[in-house]
Each structure stands twice: as C-alpha cells, then as structure tokens.
C-alpha cells in the first residue's frame, strides 16, 4: 500500500477512536513509524488529510446510492441502501461526530459539504423514484422531498445525538449498535409510505435494528478500500 494511502487509513482510525481534535500530525506519523516530514510530503496539513477523507466518504456514499439503469429496484436493493448508509456513517463516524467543529474550521470543507448534501439528497430522490416504480413505496413528490430532508437530518446528527443527549445513558461511547439504532428512526419515517414486501418485512427489520443485531459486518480495511482510499 502506498504511503499516502497508509496515512489516510491510519488517520481515519485515530480520528474515529480518539476524536479529530485530539489527534495531531505528529500522532499520525508516530503511529505509522514515519517522520513528520514524510507525512507532510504527502499532505501539507491535517486539514488536507481531513479533506481527503471527506472526499473518499463522499465518493463512497454517492456510489452506494447509485440506481441501476437496466432493471427495476428490488427489496434487496432497498435494504442495501440502508446498510450502505449505516456502514458509511460508522466507517467515517468522526466526520459527523465532529461535524460542527470541522465545518467551522475549514471553509474548503464547508463549501464541499454543502455541495455533497445537495448531491446526496438529489440521489436519494432518484432512489425513492426507483422504489416507487418498483411498487415498494407510495410517495407524492413533495412527500419524497420532505422525507429525504428528514432522513438527512437524522443520519448526519445521529452520532452527536448518541454521545451528547443522554438518551442511551450518561457518558455513552459511540459504538456500532448505538449508531445502528438510527436506522430505526429512518424506518419510522418511511413506514407510512411502504408497500408490498417492504411493508411486510418492516416488523422484522424494526426488531433487528432496535435490538442492535449486526449482520454482514465488513472490516474497516474492507470498507475503506471500497471507499476508494487504496488502489
């Protein structure tokens, strides 16, 4: 693996574990057993590293929300979208856990994030159009747009809610099961609009996500590679 990619992977690991504000470039270079100069050869600052990680997250999320053009969507596709959202939020959890601080500190990231939000919501609208064509949801255009905004608000704020609201107890550290509970909120928003097998399967999904059962768990390296950080 190239040094540039190793830096991103290790930075992601440290940011997720310790919080971005608690990790310096010296911490990253020490963890990789490389000199600070070697790190700065590839990334001029920690902001550059964060922005590169955001770009990988953005590419991975938009790819995960792609809609096939050669067939109608299926229930399995719908479930794939939910799992993709969850996996991306977990693998890049520092971005949303520390989002307010990150956006305040970087004008470049702030501009890119706003464009990303628009792209994700536009792509999500295409997903729901595909699900409507597949007879898995029944949604008017204005309902779809409102639903997508509400889902965006939940997904981008859930990590912060888990750690700061006290809803799951005092001083809760974010873990996969807590984050996965956010999918219950998405299902509750979708519930009035589901049809066919999507409605029939809802109680089963609700139990799975509420209990925190975690199937098909990729390793961090697998997920990051899918996000385009490595060759």
UniProtKB/TrEMBL annotation:
Gene Ontology terms for molecular function: DNA binding
Name assigned to this protein: TetR family transcriptional regulator
Keyword check for DNA-binding: yes
Matches recorded under SUPFAM superfamilies: Homeodomain-like (SSF46689)
DNA-binding region as annotated in the record: 24-43
Keyword DNA-binding found: yes
Highest taxon, organism lineage: Bacteria
Signal sequence interval, chain numbering: none
């Amino acid at each position: 693996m190239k040094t540039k990619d190793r830096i991103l992977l290790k930075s992601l690991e440290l940011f997720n574990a310790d919080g971005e504000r608690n990790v310096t470039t010296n911490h990253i270079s020490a963890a990789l057993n490389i000199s600070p100069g070697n790190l700065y050869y590839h990334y001029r600052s920690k902001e550059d590293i964060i922005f590169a990680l955001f770009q990988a997250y953005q590419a991975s999320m938009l790819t995960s929300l792609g809609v096939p053009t050669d067939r109608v969507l299926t229930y399995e596709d719908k479930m794939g979208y939910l799992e993709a959202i969850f996996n991306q939020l977990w693998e890049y959890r520092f971005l949303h856990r520390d989002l307010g601080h990150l956006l305040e500190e970087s004008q470049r990231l702030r501009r890119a994030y706003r464009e990303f939000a628009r792209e994700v919501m536009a792509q999500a609208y295409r997903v729901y159009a595909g699900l409507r064509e597949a007879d898995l949801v029944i949604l008017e255009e204005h309902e779809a747009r409102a639903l997508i905004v509400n889902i965006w608000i939940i997904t981008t704020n859930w990590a912060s809610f888990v750690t700061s609201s006290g809803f799951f107890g005092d001083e809760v550290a974010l873990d996969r099961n807590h984050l996965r509970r956010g999918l219950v909120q998405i299902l509750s928003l979708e519930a009035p609009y589901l049809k066919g097998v999507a409605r029939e399967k809802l109680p089963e999904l609700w139990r799975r996500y509420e209990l925190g059962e975690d199937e098909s768990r990729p390793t961090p390296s697998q997920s990051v590679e899918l996000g385009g950080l490595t060759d």
